[in-house]
Structures are given as structure tokens and as C-alpha cells.
Prior knowledge:
The structure is a homodimer. By secondary structure, chain A is of the alpha/beta class.
Amino acid sequence: SEKLSIALIRGDGIGVDVANAALAVVDAAVAKVGLPALSYEEITAGAAYYKETGRDIEPGGEKRAGELDAIFLGAIGLPSVRHDDGTEIAPHLRLRDRYGLYAGVRPVKAYPNAPQRLADPRAAEIDMVILRESTEGLFFSAATHGRPNFASDHEVRDTLRITRPTTEKLFHFGFRLAEKRKARGRPGKLTCVDKANVFNSMAFFRKIFDEISPQYPEVEATHNYVDAQALDLIRKPWEFDVMVMENMFGDILSDLGGGLVGGMGMAACAEIGDEVGLFQPAHGSAPDIMGQDKANPLAAVLSGSLMLDYLAERTGNHRWTEAAELVETAVQSGFEANRLRPMEFGGDMGTLAVTKELLELLG
Amino acid sequence: SEKLSIALIRGDGIGVDVANAALAVVDAAVAKVGLPALSYEEITAGAAYYKETGRDIEPGGEKRAGELDAIFLGAIGLPSVRHDDGTEIAPHLRLRDRYGLYAGVRPVKAYPNAPQRLADPRAAEIDMVILRESTEGLFFSAATHGRPNFASDHEVRDTLRITRPTTEKLFHFGFRLAEKRKARGRPGKLTCVDKANVFNSMAFFRKIFDEISPQYPEVEATHNYVDAQALDLIRKPWEFDVMVMENMFGDILSDLGGGLVGGMGMAACAEIGDEVGLFQPAHGSAPDIMGQDKANPLAAVLSGSLMLDYLAERTGNHRWTEAAELVETAVQSGFEANRLRPMEFGGDMGTLAVTKELLELLG
Lengths: 363, 363
Ligand SMILES: CC(C)[C@H](C(=O)O)[C@@H](O)C(=O)O
Ligand SMILES: CC(C)[C@H](C(=O)O)[C@@H](O)C(=O)O
């Protein structure tokens, strides 16, 4: 069976701690299903590296990352290290752009005994995915302009761009994801979240959605305006399955979703393009607790599970999916048995203790 | 004392029901403090009117609305009546634009016995304002382009525009609002919500905020990224006071805020410019329950209270503020005594019963 290589960017702060934890769990699951061990090629990047060298990623690193089978990233950025204009060190935004990582997959799932913010007991049933387009939309401006550059002190404009090719790919991805989830017992529903009542770009977005939806008769296709969706995510998040939306909307609603089920400590993320996939927890580098064995590695672990799933698609070998499911099941059953009690959730378990417990749960 | 005139646009659906209810309460409060009765000039507008006439507002109505002392609006729009391209009938977007109603004030406040979605008991302390810039930002595109018009079937762009004059006025408004709230016992904090880590326009927005904040030493000025703010509104909304942000961000976060404290049924809204102020509940026209005495009038009533406050600023006569406070106190004490039980919240009181109770509470 094939030998796969992962580009590993640990990055800054707790990125290092959680990447190490996640990959230990990933490796154990891979071994358990009898697949050859993943090999890792480390690529140095981040704010600490930028401070030292003036570069945010090692020479050739951006190119090399895209040549391997997947990219795994810990976290990038430090509040104390910024560009001159105050913006963050964010080489991962360039990776999204360079490799066309249009499909930002952000699962939001309630685990038993993990914190829930909503009073309604149905919040225990939350199991949804925010599918965030990740290369264009309003972030078109971020990618093209790079750093702030005020052409005038009177006004500054940014551009929200929706293109047909990316949007079509995004919706096909969304419908296929809803189909796959349906096969696993979820409702199989895709909600197009937009603001088609006001913006040309969003009416275009919805029009393309309506063109494509008849190709997926098994999936229930619905619409919601983004403001109403924010409200509905408070009022009845358990009614949603997959929601697909423009980049900036997805940035906001995925953090909202994270908030519903315990903050960013459970927020896994995959960013997938035609040739390249990048996997990282959606949380930041929390330098105040770095290296202290306090970080919650679960968002990174769940991102590792998304990576294993991606390797199954990439290779056509379903055993990678089995490995992904082992990781997911370890997290699920660990919470059920109250064996996962991360400090972030007021528990007594640091990074290593959570990792050790997961390894035991994997058996 | 002066005689003031209000442009009254009842609009569609329950807009009629809640406008009537709100103005009955407003009139009672005005009488109670001994001010001359407000006079109302009705202006016909909305989707039903559009269906009949092909116009969304009566001839000359837009101009006349701006010449009176304030505009009070019920609700506009009907799902079954749309422009050919599927977009909504929204003459109020034109009013925002024409009269430069830059300051969109959307209070979010928890009332006792009204529904709360968060499990944490501190949610009872939620008392904040989303200040949504309401004329530019991404809505610049809505105002200029009007209806969807796909120049190309390959890509469609919209523009997010931040100008210095509007942004300066917005922040001055925000700081003054935080000062006023501080005088009434709130923390006196203004949070600039942006995405300055990614967008030129947002870095410009934050830069102007940082220029202006030293002029208001009594107000604690802070920053938050919009994604983190969405999360914080789930995690610890009780820590916020006034939040100021771009138009689209404000649209999303104000609905999120509404969701925290009982849905849109309590969502009051003021949109204020240099010369004109418009007041309306932020909810829709809910035509399914129109004319059935089921609508919750409280968002409209609280919008009426915002209008009275505005009339105090406009005339320099503080007795209008007293009337505003009477209305606010009636709602507060009505909930405290469990005398306000709107059907929307599972209670037994229709529009008229809620209105009658408020009139009794006003004494
Ligand atoms: C750090 C920032 C540029 C990034 C984004 O907005 O995409 C982050 O918020 C995320 O969600 O991955
Ligand atoms: C109806 C729509 C155009 C409007 C807006 O987005 O401004 C509404 O959502 C609001 O918040 O007042």
C-alpha cells in the first residue's frame, strides 16, 4: 500500500503542542487499521519565524507543502508579532489562495459532557457543518491587496467577488458532503446561506445553487438569509445539517457555531482544493499557555480525523476512512464515558493526559 | 411647547398591528408627561402597495417622510410579492440611503420572564447595543446597484466602502451613546468590531476609531474581530455594552443578539442621520399572522421609546426622554411582574392584550 507524506507546519504557540498531540492520535489510528505510517516533512512558518527572519514561511516551503499528500497545521500568529500596519502574520491565507482551497469544512458537533451554551436540551443533538468558501468572497480583497494600503484618506474599498467556477465546485462539494452524511444517518440537507435579497453577488450565488440542486435529488436543498441564519443558530441549531456560504459569512458563522459547543477548543477545520488539502484547528496560538501542557488538543485531533478522511478520497482507499472513524469514535466515546476532561472546559486534563486517554480509547 | 409630526408608514402584514399598538403606548406616555400629542401623517408604502400600483411608496412619500420630525415604520415586505429577480420590496433601504441614516441602533436586552437561550444565569444581565453603520459598508452596493444585474455570467462583484466622514460620525455617535449609558449606570464601554487583520477597509475603520477614542476618556474603548465577537456573544454577552461595526457585520450580529434574548420579537431599531430619524421593529411582516391579534408588539413599542428619546435630542426638551423612560419602565416592570406574556413567547396575550397591559402599567 502507498506511503503518504504530510507537510507539517506546527507554527506558533500552542500550535506545536496540539499538532504533536493530534499526530500521535492519528498515527495510532493509522497503525490500528494496518496502513503504512504517515511520514511528516516539517515546514517552518509562523510569527516567531517571521520575527527571526523577516519571512513568514521558510524558503520554498509554500511550494513544497503543496507537493505532498496533505498539509497539517497547528496554529499561526502571535499578538506581539505583526506587520508594520498591525495586520497579522498569516501565510495560511496565501496557501488558501495559491492552492485554491475553496472548500472550508468546519464541523460543529455537540459532545456529551463537553460544554454547551444553550439552555434547550436539544442542543445535545447539534451536528452540523459550516461549509465556508475560502478563496474568494470578501477575502478576494485580502488575497489580492495583501497588506493595508490606503490609497486615499477619504475612503477605502474592498471587493466581494463571486465566480461561477469556484461557486459551482463549492456547491457540488456541499451536496456530496450532505449525501455522505446522509449515508451516515444525518438528514442530508444543504442550506444555501446568502443575502440574495440585497446583493447582486449573493443573488448570483443563490442562482447557481438553484441550478445545481436538481442534480442531487437525495439532498434537501434550502435557503436562508445570513442574518436569519445567525438567529436560527441560536434558536434551533439542531435543525441544520450542512450550510454553505460565502467566505466572510462562513468566518463569522463558524465561530458562532464553535461557541455553541464549547468554544474554539473543539473547532476542527479542513480547507480543500482540487489538488491540495490543509487541516488545522480553527483556534489561535494562545501563546499565554504554550508549552505548559494546558492546551486542549481536541480541535487538532478532530482536524486529523478530517485529514484521514481526505486521504481516503485522495487515494481511493477506504481504510483511511476507517482510521478517521476510529479517531472520531475515540473522541465520542471518551466524552460519553467522561474520560475526556480538558482543562479548557474546567477539567483536570492537560494536553498530554487528553492525548494519553485517546490513545487508550483507541486501544 | 412645540407640536411634532411623525411620518407613519405602517407597511405590510403585522406592521399594521404592531405600529398601532406601539403608537397607542407612545401617545399615552407623551400625555402622561404633559407634552402635546404627536400628530401622525400616514404614508402608504410596502409590498401590498407595490402589488397594486407598481410603486413601493406613494408618490412624494419619500420626500415627505424626511420633512417631518421622525419616521415610524411597522414592517415592509411580503414573501409572495417580489421584484422580478426575486429580491424584496425594500423602500426603507432607499430611505437609509437618501437621508444618510448612518447610525443603526439595535438594543439587545434581557427582560425577566422573557425567553433566554443561554444556559448561563448571567444571561439575565445582557444589556447591550449593536451600533450598525447603515448607509455604506457592503450595503454601498445595495444602494447604488439596486436590483441584481449580472454584467457577466462568470463573476459578480460587490463593493464594501468605508468613508472617513461617515465613519467619524458613527464613532462619535457610539462614544456619545456609551457616555449616555454610563450616566445611566452601564459600564460605558465601546467595542470596535472589525476584521482589521485582513481587510484594508477594516484597518481604515479601526484606524479612525483609534484616532477618535482619546476624545472620550470616560469611555473604555476596545477592539474585537468580528468572528471572535460572534463567539463572545455566545460565551459572555453580559460583558459587552456598545459595539460599533460595519453595516453587514451589524446586520448579522444584531440578529444574533436578538436571538439571545427571545428572537426578533424584542428587537427594536433606530436609524438616525444628521436630520432624519427612522424607527421600526427589526422583525419582518409575518403575514401568516397578520390581523389575527397574535403579533408581539414589544419590538415596536421599544422602537417607539427610541423615537421619544430621539425627539428629546432633536428638540432639546428633556421631557421627551421622560416619556421614553416611562415606556421602557412599563416594559421592564411588566416583565418583572409577569404581566407581559406575549403569544410569541408561548404566553396567552395577543397584540391588544399586551397593549392594554402596557397602558395600565403606564397608569
Ligand atoms: C486569522 C484569520 C485570517 C482567519 C480567517 O479569517 O480566515 C481565521 O479567522 C480563520 O477563521 O481561519
Ligand atoms: C430586509 C433587509 C434589507 C434588512 C437589512 O439587511 O438591512 C433587514 O435584514 C434589517 O436588518 O433591517
